Amino acid sequence: MTGKLEEVSKGQKEILAKIEALEKTVNQIKAAPAAAAARPQADPNKVYALAVDGNAMRGPKDARVTIVEFSDFQCPFCVQSKTLIDQVLEAYPKDVRFVYKQFPLTSIHQLAMGASKAALVAQKHGKFWEMHDIMFANSRELQPEKLTEYAAKIGIDASRFQKDMNAPETQQAVEKEMADARAADVQGTPTFFVNGKRLMTRSLDGFKQAVDQALKAG
User: Fold this and answer.
1) In degrees rounded to 5, what are phi and psi of residue 123?
2) Is pTM beyond 0.90 here?
3) What is the pLDDT confidence band of residue 174, given thresholds at 50, 70 and 90?
């Protein structure tokens, strides 16, 4: 009899736990529209003044169109976008330059800040794009010891790399780019701007449409 009572009690507890979990899910679903409503819709026609001096750049310096990306090395969607940017630059070799800016999502990506710092240290040593490529190729392995390993692979002395990683100005440089992102209403990664206008469709066709419009306007 005692065994049966224990089974019933256990069953009741499991049912209560399931009900509690279900209620939690329902409340989350109810809260989701409110959260979405609180986030302002991006204005595709708004032009943001984005500082790019000192940022890593690909393409002609005097290009008529500038694409700016706010990115996170631990973000899987940013990894995928790398190929897309390569295609855009190949399609517009004379008219487009690409600028990369740091926006590590530190609340969800614990290794992103370190990766951003590593990228800026590599830039200091003239190796930004080499570090950029090796980190995106290994975006699931961005632990501190791995970053030092990647730096050595691209020809940066390990002790100098570590010293620069620990320098306060490196952290400050990343934070400045994060502030630039927030000033441009960036909330996630990757976020792209074409001549200051937010890209609304992240595809090759979306880029071509935005670039062509910018070339006509310019």
Assistant:
1) -60, -40
2) no
3) very high
